[in-house]
Structures are given as structure tokens and as C-alpha cells.
Amino acid sequence: MAGNIHISVRDVIKVYESKGEKVTALKGVSMNVYKGEVVAVMGPSGSGKTTLLNLIAGVDKPTAGKIIVAGDDITRFNENQLRLYRLEKIGYVFQQFNLVPTLTALENVLLPMSLRGKRNVARARKLLESVGLGGKENRFPEELSGGEQQRLAIAIALANDPEIIIADEPTGELDISTGEKVVQLLLRESKEHGKTILMTTHDPRVARMANRVILLEDGIIKGEYEPTKISYRVEEGALGEIHAERIIADYLKDRLSGLQRELEILVERFKSGEVSIEELADRYYEIRHLMNALRSELAKLGAGVEAH
Ligand SMILES: Nc1ncnc2c1ncn2[C@@H]1O[C@H](COP(=O)(O)OP(=O)(O)O)[C@@H](O)[C@H]1O
Ligand SMILES: [Mg+2]
């Protein structure tokens, strides 16, 4: 696809260090995404897909390399610049939605607007309408179906009219026909509003709807594929041999409900004026990302995720 480069990833390496152990999640990744393009990243679990998205979304910083978005090297941004970047330029759609359970659909869409100081109820209603949730503004997340929750997550991602939508396995929790509708919504954002879309998926049917498919394996880009030719299947059961998985799963579930609670309390404290908008913006973002990471660990364990 010819056109303007919107996102340029240059020789990016990401090394995580936990408990003295180093994991190189990305081993020198370079790629371009053009403006208005829909790119799907595929690859087995652990290949570095989420890491790549998080670096581009400005959630985390690479160990080496550059990421240039609309001409700015975001790896040189300070915390404040990154916060603005995340709020204004990026809409992040999580696999597990990560909605605030104590807020209605409408309030969930208004939250990122408030964080940016641009609360706009009319626009929030319009967004909900556009994702097919007109009339359901006052429902709480748990009163919505899985497909509706995911569409709400898209409306939230679009709240601040970002140039780039990043979606980490946006159809992961949905059946295929619901999933296809969700992807159609993302495609519409690209076609009608020129938004650039970068998503990860395990599902070849979803990948075939993209303009371009990039295959990531073990932290390296293995190739680029014509979406129509995708029949790639991720091998099953690669993570079957985890001992004490119950214990780990229980720990993860505990952490998750703690975070959910923290998110609720944070929003309450913000509403009552105890917490500043900057504190809310930082923590809201961190909590949602942490929850996403924990939930994907849980999913890998095959323990399922009980919504509550
Ligand atoms: N916060 C982290 N700390 C340590 N290791 C991590 C962290 N996040 C991811 N990893 C590791 O980096 C590798 C890539 O993970 P990830 O980007 O989540 O892959 P994918 O999304 O393709 O499943 C995996 O080996 C994973 O265990
Ligand atoms: Mg992932």
C-alpha cells in the first residue's frame, strides 16, 4: 500500500526483566504501517504481539530502537508527553474489554473524554449509537452481552477521536459472527474516518479482513502475507505443561479482583474530588493494562476468566 507512513517501528528490541531473569520479547522488529491501513499481527502465544502493541501505544518503552508515529519519535517522550499521546492519539481496545463496572455505558465512554478535559455527552451518545448501542446508554457493563461489551470497548477507544486504533485480540472472547461484526466496525473506522488500525488476532478469518498480515514468531517478524492467503494455524496446547496452574490461576484471579476494586474506588474518589484528573488518568490506564496482562495470563493457563 503506497501512502504516508503513520507508524514506523525501527529495530525495536524489548527485554523484560523479572526476578533476575531476562526475557527478550522482541528481537529487532522493524515495520511500517501506513495511514488508514488495517494491519493484523498474527503469531503464537508468547511471540511478542502484545508487547509490540504496548510499545506502539506508548504504554511501555523499548529497550532499544525507535518508534516514530506521525513524525514524532515517541521513545523520546517524557511521561507527560506519553500521557497526552495515549489519550489523544491512541484508542486501545482490550481483548477483555476492561470496562469500569460501576459506570454505565455512557459514563464509560465519557471517562477518557474527561481525562482529557473534553467531556462531550452528545458525542458519547453518538459513538454509542454508531456501534449499535443506542438505547443502552444507561446499562452497566454486566447488563450487556459479550458482543455489546466489546462494541462498548470500541466506543471507548474512539472517545477522543484517536488517529490510531490498537486492538489486542479484539474478537478473542467472541463467537465468530459477533467477532466479525466487531471487526467490521473497526474496518469502517478505517474506511470512513481514515483511522489506522493495528490489531492482533489468532483467527485467520479475522486476519483475512485486514489489508495486510504480519507474522510474528519468537520476537521476530517472519513475513508478510496477503490476507486472502491466510490459513495459518497456531499450534494447540503449547502451554499445556504448567505445574501448579491452579495456584497461579487463583493468585491471578485474586490480583484481578483487587484491581477491579481499585478501579472502582479510584473512579469513586475522582467523582468526589479526592483524586486529581492526572492521577486518575495515569492509574486508570495502568490498571486497565495490568488487568489485560493478568487476564491473558489466565487465559493461557486455560483457567477461563469468570466475569463478575
Ligand atoms: N511484563 C512482563 N514481564 C516479563 N516477561 C514478559 C512481560 N510481558 C510479556 N513477557 C514475556 O514476553 C514474551 C512475549 O509476550 P507477549 O508480548 O505477551 O506475547 P503475545 O502477546 O504474542 O502472547 C513472552 O515470553 C512473555 O512471557
Ligand atoms: Mg498477547
Q: Can you tell me about this structure?
A:
Helices cover 41% and strands 22% of the residues. Strand 1 (5-18) and strand 2 (21-34) form a beta hairpin. The strands form two sheets. A six-stranded mixed beta sheet has the order 6-7-8-3-9-10, with helices on both faces. Strands 2-1-4-5 form a four-stranded antiparallel beta sheet, with helices on one face. It is of the alpha/beta class. Helix 3 (105-115) crosses helix 4, helix 4 packs across helix 5 (146-157) and helix 5 runs parallel beside helix 6 (176-193). It is built from nine helices and ten strands. The termini are far apart. The protein binds adenosine-5'-diphosphate and magnesium ion (MG). The site of adenosine-5'-diphosphate has 12 residues, from strand 1, strand 2 and helix 1.
Q: Return residue spans where pLDDT drops below 50 for at least 5 consecutive residues.
A: 232-243, 303-308
Rg from C-alpha positions?
A: 19 Å
Termini, distance in Å?
A: 43 Å
Strand content: 15-25%
Structural class: alpha/beta
Shape descriptor: globular
| Topology as a string of helices (H) and strands (E) | EEEHEEHEHHHEHEHEEHH
What proportion of the residues is helical, as a percent range? 40-55%
Could you say which small molecules are bound to this protein? Answer: adenosine-5'-diphosphate, magnesium ion
Note the total helix count. Answer: 9
The average pLDDT score comes to 87
Strand order of the largest sheet: 6-7-8-3-9-10
Largest sheet: 6 strands, mixed
Please tally the β strands and state the result: 10
